[in-house]
Design a protein that fits this description.
alpha/beta; six-stranded antiparallel β-sheet; 19 helices; 15 strands
Length: 514
């Protein structure tokens, strides 16, 4: 049994059944020292009435039990009635309640290190004579070796499982199609965002990325990871809105076997995968209220327990969160914990929507046309001037993701070297907001995809657009008597945040007259 068995449960079942006929006893348990917590974990192995057990596993201080004393001294400890009453209350109450008169704790020692005890208990006051103890010491020496091997194999199997799951996860990440492989754009707003990324990346602080859907928040998170000292470790992402609330806790923190119906095996959570790396929590505003305290604990203490487990796991994870919601409003509505919000909002980064950086549209269009032309084996080389004009003037409610999807479809529809875009769809969707905030961008010739975009063309387009925006904002400000905030303020009428409007006013040189 000792030589051939690697499973700890089967190992001790065999040992207990073999010893019963040689050394009379009523109860058997195993005590293992947890080096991470310094606590003693006691596992019942053979109990006549399992229903009487207070817990399947008992964690107590090492100095609160005879097993702890045997580990500390490295000697067999035989404790009788009066000594049992001085044990840890949970231990002594259970033993006395079962009529136990004597306990024998035999140390498990290998390579000069005592890592636990095998414990025997009996209702017979005369149990565990000197010959019995000598036999148990010899048995324990062999059991220690067998148990150490079994635990080592168990740890190796767990690491293999973790590596296998991590390999599948990384392969899935490699196969995932991102919005674009690199951040494209030269606008002042985007450059300001990237300068914040450069500040935050090496610091290791928690980052909260704010922005509308499709603006590229995940790319910003990856940039933070790639510029940080953790770049050699794993970047793990979790979409809090895409996973059902009942499964999200298991996805984040993992679960033990039997934690719930269907939990047939142990599962490693995303926090464990991201150890010494970066965990990206996308759509963190959709995190269920019941999970928010557990996330707060991980952020503050870097420790958690798997679902259905009682072993505390420590990790070193940098969290980068993202949301398209107003978390401060959710806090006001009591849908999001304010302490978690403050813990996430250590370094906020705002990703600008595409409509606020129209000068980046031509660069993105050229990039996507080249990308999808290669993928679809097409030869698209030119973008007609009227097409680029429409693309620049469109407000892009779906931001870069919407632009990418449109260009992919346009390349598929294009038969020659000229990009064919269903411009009528853009005109129908654009409505009056485009007319108010944008002016036509004039191109004297089609844009060649392989050639650089000339500076005069971009400058002219930007100047025309800026002037149109400036006049419209001034008109609304005069209408509201220069009131910016509030339900009747200019920001509300223009459909933008107060801070966004103030930033736009500074950019366009708009100041309230004295």
């Amino acid at each position: 049994m000792l030589i051939s068995t690697r499973d700890t449960t089967a190992l001790f079942t065999g040992i207990v059944s073999s010893l019963k006929s040689v050394v009379a006893h009523d109860y058997t348990s195993l005590a293992l020292l947890d080096p991470a917590t310094g606590l003693l974990k006691i596992h019942p192995l053979d109990v006549p009435n399992p229903a009487s057990l207070p817990k399947k596993e008992l964690a107590i201080p090492i100095d609160g039990s005879p097993a702890g004393r045997a580990i500390t001294t490295g000697q067999v400890l035989v404790a009788r009635r009066e000594e049992i009453d001085r044990f840890h209350p949970e231990v002594s109450n259970f033993l006395r309640g079962q009529g136990v008169e004597v306990v024998c704790c035999v140390p498990l020692t290998t390579h000069g290190r005592t890592f636990g005890t095998v414990n025997f208990a009996s209702r017979n006051p005369g149990a565990f004579s000197t010959p019995d103890v000598e036999l148990l010491k010899q048995v324990a020496a062999q059991v220690a070796i067998a148990l150490e091997n079994a635990l080592a194999f168990k740890e190796i199997d767990a690491l293999k499982d973790k590596l296998a799951v991590e390999k599948l996860y990384l392969e899935e990440e490699i196969r995932t199609e991102f919005n674009f492989e690199e951040i494209i754009g030269e606008s002042p707003l985007l450059r300001r965002t990237l300068s914040q990324v450069e500040l935050a990346a090496p610091a290791g602080t928690t980052v909260l990325i704010l922005g509308e859907t499709g603006t590229g928040k995940e790319l910003i998170a990856r940039a933070i990871h790639n510029l940080s000292p953790r770049r050699e470790r794993t970047f793990v992402k979790v979409n809090c809105a895409a996973i059902p609330a009942g499964l999200l806790e298991s996805e984040l923190f993992g679960h033990e076997r039997g934690a719930f119906t269907g939990a047939l095996t142990q599962k490693i959570g995303r926090f464990e995968f991201a150890d010494r790396g970066t965990l990206f929590l996308d759509e963190v505003g959709d995190l269920p209220p019941e999970l928010q305290p557990k996330l707060l604990r991980v952020l503050q203490e870097q420790e958690f327990e798997r679902l259905g487990g009682n072993r505390t796991l420590r990790v070193d994870v940098r969290v980068v969160a993202a949301t398209n919601q107003d978390l401060s409003a959710l806090v006001a509505d009591r849908k999001f914990r304010n302490d978690l919000y403050y813990r996430l909002n250590v370094f906020p980064i705002q990703v600008p929507p595409l409509r606020e950086r129209p000068e980046d549209v031509p660069l993105l269009v050229r990039y996507f046309v080249q990308k999808f032309s290669r993928r679809q084996n097409k030869t698209v080389e030119y973008v007609p001037a009227d097409v680029m004009d429409a693309l620049v003037n469109y407000p892009w409610p779906g931001n870069v993701r919407e632009l990418e999807n449109l260009i992919e479809r346009a390349v598929l529809l294009s038969r020659g070297k000229e990009l064919r875009v269903p411009v009528t769809e853009l005109k129908e969707s654009s409505t009056s907001s485009v007319a108010m905030l944008s002016a036509p961008v004039e191109f004297t010739r089609p844009m060649a995809l392989g050639a650089p975009i000339s500076a005069p063309a971009i400058a002219g387009a930007a100047n025309t657009l800026d002037e149109a925006q400036r006049q419209h904002i001034l008109s609304v400000l005069r209408q509201t008597r220069w009131r910016i905030a509030g339900p009747n303020g200019a920001a509300a009428i223009l459909g933008m945040k107060r801070t966004t409007l103030q930033a736009r006013m500074r950019k366009l040189g708009i100041a309230r007259p004295i």
